Amino acid sequence: MIRFSLIYLRVGTPRHSLAFKPVLKRFAAVLVSLGLCAGSVFAAHGEVPPEAGAERASDFMFFLEDEPVYTSLQSSSPGFMLSVVNEMLKRMKKSASRQFLPWNRAQLLTMTTPNAVIFPLTRSKEREDKYLWICKILDVPVTFVTKARTGRTVDSFEEARNIRGIGVIIGTPQEVKLREENIPYITFNGKSLYGALSDNRVLALYTAIPEAAVGWRKGDHPGKLIFGPPLQTLPLWIAANKSSVDIDIRAWQKTLDGMQSDGSFARIFERYFETPYAQGPVK
Questions:
Q1: I need a labelling partner for 39 at 20 to 30 A (CA). Which of 8, 128, 204, 280 fits?
Q2: Does the reported pTM lie above 0.70?
Q3: Is residue 208 domain-shared with residue 247, that is, in the same domain?
């Protein structure tokens, strides 16, 4: 961010000061124009800039993706993970600014911005040394998902190799797994994945079971889904920049444990996934 300072220069007599005022006015107009341009750049890329002054007032910066299941821009339904973390912040008496970005960019900015936080992020071997891992929220099973009316299930990676048109979210361990298994795939962002299946742009998805159910329902897509057997388990974490000196991992974990104990975590889970929460605390 570029910051400007206006320095008042008193030159000679009041007459000179008055002559300088038009210059200041023109310079102020330029600054206003720059501010508008900056907002246009964010809008053009589908990004939501933080509120003015938010970086100074907030304890943390959240870099998130706008998608319907875990972290959404919709204030009435901000997503399961964002709802959980909002409650954690409230209990810890902390605040955060939020910026919604494409997922790969959100990951990059978290790795380069002190006190930046990202979620949900799967903890994997490739990511282990790139982040500060705060606490695990959930384990989710991953499988191939198809539309019920096709009558077809995909039960293994071997079967999937014969399918042309499998959708997966870009920049995820699911994408890495398909690549490792030599399975052709098409990448989407989290917001458009389920629409691609609904519109027959892909024949199947490789994604987490609970988020597929929620994403399909929230998108108001017709028909039902068929889930194959779980083929992968993803541990979903809250993670942060490795140089985040203001993040107390023990305080975050203690707060999450409190939500598990008093039932508030389960209530948030059941509100979004419309199924009883039976997993219990995750470690």
A1: 8
A2: yes
A3: no
